[in-house]
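Weekly modeling sync, notes
Attendees: S.R. (lead), two postdocs, one rotation student

Agenda item 3: backlog of single-chain predictions. S.R. asked that every request posted to the team notebook include the full sequence so nobody has to chase files. The rotation student volunteered to paste the first one in as an example of the format we agreed on. Action items at the bottom.

Example entry:
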Amino acid sequence: MCIERRAYSSVRLHRSCSVHSGAVGLRRGERRSQDAASPTAGAGGKKPLTVNELKKLIRALPEPSKTIVSVLVRTGLRIGELLALRWMDVDFRLREIRVERNVYEGHFDEPKTKSSRRRVPLSPAAASLLRARRSKGVTPGELVFASRTGTPLSRRNLLQRQLQPAADALGFVGVTWHSFRHVNATLLDSARTPLGTVQNILGHASSEVTRGVYLHAIPTEARNAVTKLDRLLGAKKFGPKSDSSCKRGKARAAVNY
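Predicted structure, as returned to the notebook:
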């Protein structure tokens, strides 16, 4: 079931809410890939990134996009949700994050739907990636991904200066921030994650039938799902080094975006 909603006052987008059918709506300027259940199929011949392609892209990316992509693909967060994340939203003890807000062009807003406000489990690798960014003395209200002045990073600048150049150099066409949400849904489906659990992780709205059958998915299922995703990606093979092998905060961006 597809729904149309306004993400921000100046941006309209369509998102597909059916992981079962594999149709994941992309932001304007991206093609729609119709078969998210298979990493080798897509409408018009366009294929989602494979795991090997994803690893190549992450290795080629500079910080902070390297960590951003690594976390996006493991959590299924929207780029605006990740860039709005504050340390008080990250619970390393429970290994989960709370999605409470979005940010677009420096402006914060609350999630537009009830399903978008959610708790997302962190796999061990995702938790390690975030922990490596946490510098000593950081306050709970600080952004996890921030400029040197503490302001939100610009998704547009990161896309144009880091993500697109790296993807183009590797011959990966049409890669945007939403591509990694697509990959996350594909990998969760490949790990045979229940549809209701996938929808809860992604914060999708669901059909009446899905609400009646799947919304009782328990947190343990969600935690198991993201752990399986780590295994599919090969947790230790790509992404920034964990905080056990590098000083905390080393991965923080050194320039404003």
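Discussion: group reviewed the output briefly. Residues 115 and 203 are 5 Å apart (CA to CA).
Action items: rotation student to repeat for the remaining queue; S.R. to check formatting next week.
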